[in-house]
Amino acid sequence: MKENQPNETEKIRLSKVMSSRGLCSRREADSFIERGLVKVDGKIVNVLGSRVFPDCKIEIVGEAKDFLDEQVTIVLHKPRDYVSSQPEDGYTSALDLIREQNYFGKGYKNILRKGLAPLGRLDIDSTGLILYSQSGVLAKKIIGDATEIEKEYEVNVSGDITEKALKLLEFGLELDGVQLKKAKITKLTKSKMIFILKQGRKRQIRRMCELVGLKTTRIHRMRVGKLRIDDLPEGMWRIVEPHEIL
Fold first, then answer.
1. Is 13 exposed, middle or buried (0-12, 13-18, 19+ CB in 10 A)?
2. Which pLDDT does position 97 carry in this prediction?
3. Per-domain residue ranges for the chain?
4. Are 234 and 127 spatial neighbours (Cβ–Cβ below 8 Å)?
5. What pLDDT does 69 receive?
6. What are the beta bridge partners of residue 194?
7. Closest CA to 199 of 123, 244, 243, 148
8. Could you give the CA distance from residue 194 to residue 78 in angstroms, rounded to a whole number?
9. Nearest Cα residue to 236 out of 142, 102, 123, 122
């Protein structure tokens, strides 16, 4: 092989390269490729499984580009008694609050709710900041297994918050046979703590507290990444940009 000649073994699946660059999700990439909406080094590639060099130039064109440009992310201040996603019998989805009369701020923009998915759920008894997005890329960054995005909660409990309990809450607990990532826990009063987590297992905070003999009486999410709930009233929502979070 001549020096500097490209090595075919270095090629990677196109959809994987697109996902790793944050252009779109793997599933979206496959769909765009199949529909002939992806250019590699200026040429349309429309064969699924196509492999490319890691440093190639990739463009998403036509209706695929429009689709990605129009994807929406919103932040909602979830009240109690609403579920984060699709409701079970007798419960109401927080998605029902995403309507014009609950929009916070100026310049209301009518959005399509189709495809909005929660980026980290809040259970029915919890309140505070919840993100919904149509972006698979943002979802992976916030709730993927490798995420480093912090989620901050104010947690009220009944029981004795001992030093031993605090240390275990920070690191050393398991849920469902899985070692939990290290957390940051700050005791504010005899019944109130701040939790900062980088993961979100089902009812994680409630179950963590139970393991150290505490019962949660209130969980309120205040922050995801850089985005704080601040003055967003309960039950209201607004559109956010990814740079506000990451």
1. middle
2. 94
3. 8-69, 73-244
4. yes
5. 87
6. 154, 186
7. 148
8. 19
9. 102
- Interior/surface letters 77-116, b for 16+ CB within 10 angstroms, e for the rest: bbeeebbbeeeeeeeeebbebbeeeebbeeeeeebeeeeb
Per-state percent for the chain, helix, strand, coil, to nearest 5 = 25, 30, 45
Helix (H, G, I), strand (E, B) or coil at 243: helix
What is the mean pLDDT for each group of 10 consecutive residues in the chain (246 residues)? 69 94 92 96 96 95 92 95 81 91 85 84 95 92 91 98 97 95 97 96 96 98 96 95 87
CATH class of 73-244: alpha beta
The predicted pLDDT at position 36 comes to 96
Number of residues written out for the chain: 246
Distance CA 180, CA 160 (A): 22
Give the helix ranges, DSSP H, for 5-154.
14-20, 26-34, 62-69, 136-143
3-state SS assignment for residue 100: helix
- Cα 144 from Cα 126, distance rounded (Å): 22
One-letter identity of residue 16: K
pTM for the whole structure: 0.86
pLDDT value for 88: 67
Confirm or reject CATH 3.10.290.10 for domain 8-69, answering yes or no.
yes
So which residues are the catalytic ones? Answer: 123
**202-214 burial, b for 16+ CB within 10 Å, e for fewer?**
ebbbbebbeebeb
